[in-house]
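Lab notebook, bench 4. The sequencing result for the construct came back, and we need a structural model before the next group meeting so we can plan mutations. Quick request posted to the team channel:

Model the 3D structure of this chain.
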Amino acid sequence: MASIPATMQAVLVTNTGKDSTLVIKPIPVPVPSAEQLLIKVAAAGVNRADLMQRRGFYPPPEGESDVLGLEVAGVVVAAGAQHKSWLGKAVFGLVPGGGYAEYALLHAGHAMPVPAGYTMAEAAATAEVFLTAYQLMCKIGNLQAGQRVLIHAGASGVGTAAIQLAKTIGAKVAVTASSDAKLALCKTLGADVLLNYNSVAFEQALSAIWPDGVNLILDSVAGAYVSREIPLLAMDGKIVLYAMMGGKDVPQLDLSALFKRRGQVICSTLRNRSNQYKTQLTQAFYQSYGQALAQRQLKPVLQQQFNWQQAEQAHQLMASNGTLGKLVLTL
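Done. Here's the predicted structure in token form:
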């Protein structure tokens, strides 16, 4: 195996805030702890959280790399003493930071083998969205066969993964999106109800289609959406918030409507959870759905690959809300 250099190139943020820029500079190659793997990065997923971190709103957990990038795919080139069996293997998984670099640290418990036939770009597009969707729907939402789920931003990375998981579970799926092209993608993934939020009020349209209500709502918008969603809930229904693209304040919140349905509003994150939690989540997901990934019954929707030196262009595309599925940087 090739020797590991002392330094590497990484994409760094300068002038954190609304006027931030990205630059490529040399930094030391990180050294894996007893529980970590050192990955020679071949591809890194681009996530909206990266844009938030640039703005100063989503810092890495204490002690973790402040280099952008929450998921990688690549080859293990060094490992802690108990994890030497990973050496030389192609893996993908979540990282707390550091993905936009030539090398990155990956906790051994968060590593998954790249499925046969997958490109590194496809693998890098998989972990964040499928683990997030799995956490929201299965671990928190407890979605069951025959139930109904509403997924906002259906054509996003998490949305496309959530549609596929929900259909695999046997649920009925409604999605919202901003264009007919995005809804067409959602339909190909199995969505049953397609709602263009620019042309219809989703809550009115869905209540007419599903008068018995929705068991689970995955909401990346928050803000005013929460009050609009509560009347949609079936008895004991859940709204799971995992982002705040529509704002952090919820106007005109009528708790009586939530009580009437014994409803729950739950806020969820993934990046700042413990390594033990992420290990359990990763292993439970891979045990349940690893074969489906390998057989492409579940698969990432990869819109575009960028050379990692084009990270700024990738961020601009993501910020435009014009994406369908995932964007990936390749090294």
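The mean pLDDT is 96.
Will bring this to the meeting.
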